[in-house]
Amino acid sequence: MQRRFDDVAGRALLQLAVALHRSVAGQVARERWQQRRNTVLRAAAGRGVPVWELAARLGLSQGWVRQVLNVRKPAEPPVIEEAA
Question: DSSP states of 18-83 as a string?
Answer without folding.
Answer: HHHHHT--SHHHHHHHHHHHHHHHHHHHHTT--HHHHHHHHT--HHHHHHHHHPPPPPPPPPPPPP
